[in-house]
Specification:
This protein is α/β, with parallel strands linked by helices and 383 residues long. It has helices spanning 9-18, 67-84, 94-107, 126-140, 151-159, 181-195, 215-225, 245-254, 270-273, 291-298, 311-314, 329-341, 343-356, 362-382, and strands at 31-35, 54-58, 89-92, 111-115, 145-148, 168-170, 201-206, 234-239, 261-265, 279-282, 303-306, 322-324. Helix 11 links the parallel strand 11 and strand 12.
């Protein structure tokens, strides 16, 4: 279960996990339950990545808090689980994590929940944070296993008293990793030619336009980079869409960056577009371990990222990438400038990250998830 199929790391993880290898399809049958897609933002519902998957829309399952919709969704989930009697329920994202676990508890089905960053964030109101943490502690009591995509989420959960150490399992959010360097080089050349950036120094960020992703810090950093020798050749590619896009566009104008910033909007080929850039940036205020970091590493592109959540699980500063503190525009600018002026540093960081990312394959993610499902279902049957 996942709250929606809007573009994001949790959704990509759900779909990737659900693609059971042919040799194991006699052992596993997977259905994906998701909010019915009533959103102004682009979603994965109508795209080829969902072909061949059993995807079932859940009426009234929406991201926002709504007593009426939430009760309707919970009742629907309980009915569906009673009718279909799956062996294991696996929830992803905050709303589906709450309603899905409650429904599984009512019906008596073992449940796994994957944490893609905790629902309590640095910008949450203190009362809301206490409420979210209290709810997570209660839900942990009816959760058989808590999956984290990075060690940072496990540490934070235990610090907050959410579950016990024995409940946690680490399963990395995997990506498809190509082993054809020639194809990657060809893709880069084609994309840069199509985008008209052949001779540019290109910084890119693939992210939903939201407070979490903190485009403001990135733009302030780019404004500093634009004042250096890199300025005349500088281009920033922003891939994605979301509620704060108009604010970001206004900030671009205020900072005088209209000639440097290109808004590409929602792209179904977002994971490929990273091949076109020279530096990939993650400026988030909070995160789990974003797939964009891994996708950049797989593409041979060095990363500058905020040191938040589990980002440090993958990026070792000055070895597999460069880390800056969240909100530190000056530090981000210095990191981008150092990469822009030093091609040897770009290559060294990219090479180290390319080796590290081999541990984050979608095959490994699927394999470990299937073994967890068997473990959870088996523990019930043995009782």
């Amino acid at each position: 279960m996942v709250t929606s199929l809007a573009h994001g790391g949790a959704q990509e993880t759900v779909l990737g996990t659900s693609r059971i290898p042919v040799e194991r399809r006699k052992q596993f049958e997977v259905s994906v339950l998701a909010g019915d897609g009533a959103s102004a933002e682009p979603t994965l519902w109508d795209e080829s990545c969902v072909d061949g998957l059993d995807i079932i829309p859940v009426p009234a399952l929406v991201r926002r808090l709504s007593m009426i919709d939430d009760v309707r969704a919970l009742r629907w989930l309980i009915r569906w689980l009673r009718t279909n009697q799956p062996d294991v329920v696996h929830t992803h994202s905050s709303k589906a994590g709450v309603l899905g676990r409650l429904a599984a508890f009512v019906v008596g089905i073992p449940v796994v929940h994957t944490v893609h960053g905790w629902g309590s964030t640095p910008v949450s109101h203190p009362l809301a944070r206490r409420g979210v943490l209290g709810l997570e502690r209660l839900l942990a009591r009816i959760t058989d296993r808590l999956v984290v995509v990075g060690e940072g989420d496990r540490r934070q959960g235990l610090e907050w008293g959410v579950g016990s150490d024995s409940q946690y399992r680490l399963i990395r959010s995997g990506i498809s990793i190509s082993t054809d360097p020639a194809a990657a080089v060809g893709l880069r050349r084609r994309l840069r030619r199509e985008l008209g950036i052949d001779d540019r120094f290109v910084v890119g960020m693939v992210a939903r336009f939201s407070r979490q992703k903190d485009h403001d810090t990135l733009l302030r950093a780019i404004a500093e980079v634009a004042r250096t020798d890199l300025g005349p050749s500088l281009t920033l590619l922003l891939v994605g869409d979301g509620p704060t896009r108009r604010e970001v566009e206004a900030t671009v104008s205020q900072l005088g960056l209209a000639d440097q910033v290109v808004f590409l909007g929602h792209r179904v080929d977002a994971a490929q577009l990273v091949h076109a850039v020279d530096v990939s940036v993650v400026s988030s205020r909070w995160e789990g371990l974003p797939r964009t970091v891994l996708e950049a590493a797989a593409a041979g592109v060095p990363v500058v990222a905020s040191n938040v959540g589990s980002v440090g699980d993958f990026i070792e500063n000055e070895h597999t990438g460069l880390l800056v503190e969240p909100g530190d525009a000056a530090g981000m600018a210095r990191s981008i400038i150092s990469l822009g002026l030093n091609s040897a540093l770009r290559s060294r960081l990219a090479d180290a990250a390319s080796l590290r990312v081999q541990e984050f394959s979608d095959d490994e993610m699927r394999s470990r998830t299937m073994e967890l499902w068997l473990d959870v279902a088996g523990s019930v049957y043995r009782r």
